[in-house]
Amino acid sequence: MRDVLMQIVQWWETGQRFGLATVVETFRSAPRPPGASMAVLGDEAEGSVSGGCVEGAVYELAQEVLASGEPVLQRYGVSDDEAFSVGLTCGGILDVFVEPISRETFPELGAIAESVRGREPVAVATVLSGPGAVGARRVIWPDRSSGSLGVARLDEAVDDDVRGMLAQGLTGVRRYGARGERRLDELSIFVNSFAPPPRMLVFGAIDFAAAVARIGKFLGYHVVVCDARPVFTTAKRFPEADEVIVKWPHDYLSSITVDERTAICVLTHDPKFDVPLLEVALRTPAGYVGAMGSRRTHEDRLARLAQAGLSEAELKRLRSPIGLDLGARTPEETAVSIAAELIQLRWGGSGQPLTDGSGRIHGHEPHA
């Protein structure tokens, strides 16, 4: 829903009633992940649930849902014939939940939008199927909740689980018993998490950093560029960065909180900058720590870090030389190779050409 959130809030604020279709579960080579949404108002549609494969069928279903007022959970691509009839020729399966939305049915939508704008984590839990009230919704923040799924014990169980999912930025279906029993699976609940964008910390105010900042922003990161040299570390040189910090890199990294979703890109390849910085970086829970430099620079860097007291396990976390081997030469090509490595690590892909492989293309689950 993040892709269409600002548009649907405008409709919601003016009192209009519209249909919202959301991918809640996928199987095989589905083109878009859970959480992808399309909103329908009259003859207008915003967003996408399949990159174009089943949009027409979902649009028609949204019109039916608006007419009946009843939410519907619909599967697309169950068989080859059905996949062809709706255009899902990639062979995947999508479960799409379509519901009518208005100020009356979804009073918390404005608060959700405010949280997203303010980078406050928030999640929406919705009953999809089972003995509960289909379409019942509960909105969960780290410190509060609103709405109910119908049973207090179910609300409590979902609150606990969703806060764990929010911490990791996870979206997906959870299953419970009718009263919140975690050992049962008769009730399906979709959890749509709106965690703040993950951060990309780019150290080194060089031309490669400008390209990495651009592609990091394109991938949805909150991008920070940091360097100790004020003459190079300016907002004018890094217009795509969300923050430009003039500070010694290791001092800055020591002063902030880093989580598992953070990507750290060390592009300084200067020992006086990168060794103290990597001492700090490799002891954080950051999901990615990469450093630029030749293989000779890498070996020298490892020796210096070992002398500084880093363990073998900590050193193994370092992705260096940074990026996948694409034969990159220019700053822009190098940025693509770094982005490719981030994507490969997130989804567990092989990094090999798709033409040399077999099996599902979109079948990977995200890594924590």
UniProtKB/TrEMBL annotation:
Residues 200-342 form the XdhC Rossmann domain. InterPro entries: MoCofactor_Util/Proc (IPR052698), XdhC_CoxI (IPR003777), XdhC_Rossmann_dom (IPR027051). It holds the Pfam family XdhC_CoxI. Signal peptide: none annotated. Residues 11-77, 117-177 form the XdhC- CoxI domain. This is Xanthine dehydrogenase accessory factor. It comes from Streptosporangium lutulentum.
